[in-house]
Design brief:
A: mainly alpha; 5 helices; B: mainly alpha
């Protein structure tokens, strides 16, 4: 299956943002472990790894704007909706379990990990719903 | 939505890729429309109709008239 122009642009942005995330995460952890000053700079450094992740969400939004193939855009929108529903559902269930003291605390940034995993779930949903075709 | 896209395409001896190129969409999109798994937007339906020199209703069957 050939990529559309918008998909190629999206993939390039995802690659660069993922590399930036890796670098900023390693740098942030190293700084906070060895040079933390308990001041404003710590806040900035702690937030830095979140920025490329936010960029990934923005990249998907930009893809929706740039994609001229409406069917492919619909598939990706469905994929993102499944991912959103999946992440919110798991997060909600976990929150109630945590409130009941049945499971331990999990950092809230894992909701982004769940969402990215949910994109994979959404891709499976697309394959199932469009079986018989090529989606 | 039922349509005559496959027949119209065959009459012109076009494969799905040929039609996709003319409509500036992916072959996957043409396949989805042909098999009724995806209903095109009004602008794309007009584009398809204009490509074949027909009215939209000559290509696509209104869901209310399918039975």
């Amino acid at each position: 299956m050939a990529f559309t122009r918008a998909e190629k642009s999206y993939n390039v942005r995802v690659l660069w943002l993922s590399l930036a995330y890796g670098a900023l995460l390693i740098g942030s952890i190293y700084y906070l472990k060895h040079y933390a000053q308990h001041g404003g700079i710590d806040w900035l450094v702690a937030i830095l790894p979140a920025l490329p992740l936010i960029g990934l969400f923005a990249a998907l939004g930009r893809y929706f704007v740039e994609e001229s193939d409406e069917y492919r855009r619909m598939l990706t929108i469905r994929q993102a909706l499944v991912a959103t529903g999946f992440a919110l559902s798991v997060g909600t269930i976990w929150g109630f379990l945590e409130g009941a003291g049945l499971v331990g605390h999990v950092e809230s940034f894992y909701i982004a990990c769940l969402w990215f995993f949910g994109l994979g779930v959404g891709n499976c949903v697309n394959k199932i719903l469009d079986r018989g075709g090529e989606a | 939505m039922k349509n005559r896209l496959k027949v119209l395409r065959a009459e012109r001896d076009w494969n799905q890729g040929d039609l996709a190129d003319r409509l500036e969409v992916s072959r996957q999109s043409v396949n989805a429309i042909e098999t009724g798994r995806y209903d095109p937007s009004l602008p794309l339906a007009f584009k398809i109709a204009e490509l074949f020199g027909l009215a939209i209703e000559d290509i696509f069957t209104s869901p209310s008239k399918e039975n």
